Each structure stands twice: as C-alpha cells, then as structure tokens.
Amino acid sequence: MRTHLDGAIRIGIIGSGRIAERFISEAQQVQGIEVVGVYNPRFPAAREFADRHHLEIAAESEEMLYKGVDAVYIASPHETHFYYIMNALVKGKHVWCEKPMVLDKQEAEKAFACAKHQGLVLMEAIKTAYCPGFLKVLEVLDSGRIGLIRDVEGTFTKLSPPGEHWRELSPSPWAGSFTELGSYPLMAVLSILGDQYESLRFEHIPGQHGLDLYTKAYFRYTDSLATVKVGLGVKSEGTLVVSGSKGYLKVVAPWWKTDAFSLYYEDATSRDDFEEEFAGEGLRYGLSWFAAAIQGSQEAVRLLPSKVSIGIAAIMAAFLKERNGGRRGVGRTNG
C-alpha cells in the first residue's frame, strides 16, 4: 500500500453538487488533508465551485485533476461512480466514494481488487459507519448485553421542503428511495448480522416514472431476521432497533447520526443509556479514517470492510433488477 505521504493529503472532488458543498466544510475539520480541486464534466460548474471555495484547481478534465492530487472524493451521480473509481485507481489515486459506491456486485469486487492490486485505499463514504456512536453500538452488541441478536430494524425516510423538487426522484433507472437512502440501514444490517442471509425479498410502492417512493427489504438469516425501510416523501420514525434474547437496543432518531442509544430489558425500570459525539454533518469521521488508512492504518479499513460494500452493491443490484423489470404496482421478489 502506498502510504505515509509527506505533508497534507491533497484531495480533489469529482462532482460539485449538494454533498460536495458539505464535504468542503467537513474537510476543514480534519487535520492532514487539504481539498485543492474539483472536476465536473460541465466545466463552468467546476469553475464556479472552485472560485467560491478558493480551490487552486478547476479541472477541465479528469487528467488535469489527477495530476494535482493524492486522492479523490467521488460525489457524482450514482451510475457514474464505477467509471470514476476505476479511472482514479488506474491513475494511482486513493478513492473515497460517496454512497452507494456502486450498484452492482461484480463492479464492487472489481473496484476493490483493483485498489488492492494498485496498493491504494478505496473506501465507501457511509458516514454512520465511522462515527463514534455507531462504533459504540457495535461494541455493545458484541459484548452480549442484549443476548443473542434475533432482529434488526433500520428506517430512513425523508420529506422534501415545500416546493422543492426531489432530484432523487427524477427520471432515471438508478434513482428512487432505495438507492438514495438504503445504504445506511443496509450497512447496519450487514455490519450486525453479516452477509450470509438465506433469503431476501423486496416490496415497494412506485411513484412517477416507476421509481420507488417507499421500499422495504426483508432478510432471513439462520437464526435472525432484519428489515430495512426507506422512503422519499413518506415519513416514519428514523430509528434503529436491535432485538435480542435478553433485551433490545434502540438508537434514537435520526439513528444515522448516532449520538444516543439505550438498552431496554424485561424489567421496565431498568435501562442503560449511552451518549456519543456526532459533530457537524458527520463526514469528518469517515474522512479522518480515510486519511488514516492512506497513512497505513489497517483499523480504518476494517470499520467498513469491503465485504459490506460489496454486499450493499449486490442488494442494490437485486432491487433494481426487480423494480426495473416492467411490472406495475407493489413489487415483490424472492431470492
């Protein structure tokens, strides 16, 4: 692995949308990195973004960006991620890619294999996976305090501000609630129960253009179950609940910004509470670990193992195949 860069790690952004804006402010909170440039296929957008954030590089081409950076943060549309990941890795750049990293299992496997071959870091930017609160959740679950884990339920839903158009529901084979929000609860399920589920099925309510407004994924493992629930334009309580043989763990809404959770037992008077910091938008935690991985930390890579990102990509692919299969009404797939 190429490690121990002299001075600050120079990062370039691919994409200049909403998440790229948040990335700039979060990166300013992380020591050892410097955001120096941006690339957008629409050069005027890159130029405006670079001017506004005082970046030294407004790249007219990918090649121009790669020449001036050590690593890239990919914040482009979902369907372009694999293309940019592979280009960056081939050019010798570490990659921090926005979720969902890719939408196909084989692409995920190929990307991680390329990173390993090149001696580079490739990590998926699911911010929850790296924040202190969620890491504490995993620690408490591993301790056995709620016994054998029998069920995981994760929910992430959003309502748009009045009059705002959902970019995520624009006509596209890759848009919809599941691709936009599903990475968070899928990460939780796979991190807690693993990727060896016995069956998986989906149900969704379609909206305009056939895109899913509200989606549920149901997992069956040998000795446990899991449910993922996501929605755009539908609102539910955004909690993460893990049920065990001795009690249950509940992360308060919004659980993906994990800053507080509690353990509950049969005795209603008994409860254990936990609080952890969740600063800003939370991107700073993952970005700190990304920088640590570039400098050689193996612990950083283990926080969100490649098998979890590959597992998420496989599930996304299965859902898109079912949803885009041409059927109307509530979709269902058994697998």
From TrEMBL:
<dbReference type="Pfam" id="PF22725">
    <property type="entry name" value="GFO_IDH_MocA_C3"/>
</dbReference>
<dbReference type="InterPro" id="IPR000683">
    <property type="entry name" value="Gfo/Idh/MocA-like_OxRdtase_N"/>
</dbReference>
<keyword id="KW-0560">Oxidoreductase</keyword>
<dbReference type="InterPro" id="IPR036291">
    <property type="entry name" value="NAD(P)-bd_dom_sf"/>
</dbReference>
<feature type="domain" description="GFO/IDH/MocA-like oxidoreductase">
    <location>
        <begin position="134"/>
        <end position="249"/>
    </location>
</feature>
<dbReference type="InterPro" id="IPR055170">
    <property type="entry name" value="GFO_IDH_MocA-like_dom"/>
</dbReference>
<feature type="domain" description="Gfo/Idh/MocA-like oxidoreductase N-terminal">
    <location>
        <begin position="9"/>
        <end position="124"/>
    </location>
</feature>
<dbReference type="InterPro" id="IPR050984">
    <property type="entry name" value="Gfo/Idh/MocA_domain"/>
</dbReference>
<protein>
    <submittedName>
        <fullName>Gfo/Idh/MocA family oxidoreductase</fullName>
    </submittedName>
</protein>
<dbReference type="Pfam" id="PF01408">
    <property type="entry name" value="GFO_IDH_MocA"/>
</dbReference>
<dbReference type="GO" id="GO:0000166">
    <property type="term" value="F:nucleotide binding"/>
</dbReference>
<dbReference type="GO" id="GO:0016491">
    <property type="term" value="F:oxidoreductase activity"/>
</dbReference>
<comment type="similarity">
    <text>Belongs to the Gfo/Idh/MocA family.</text>
</comment>
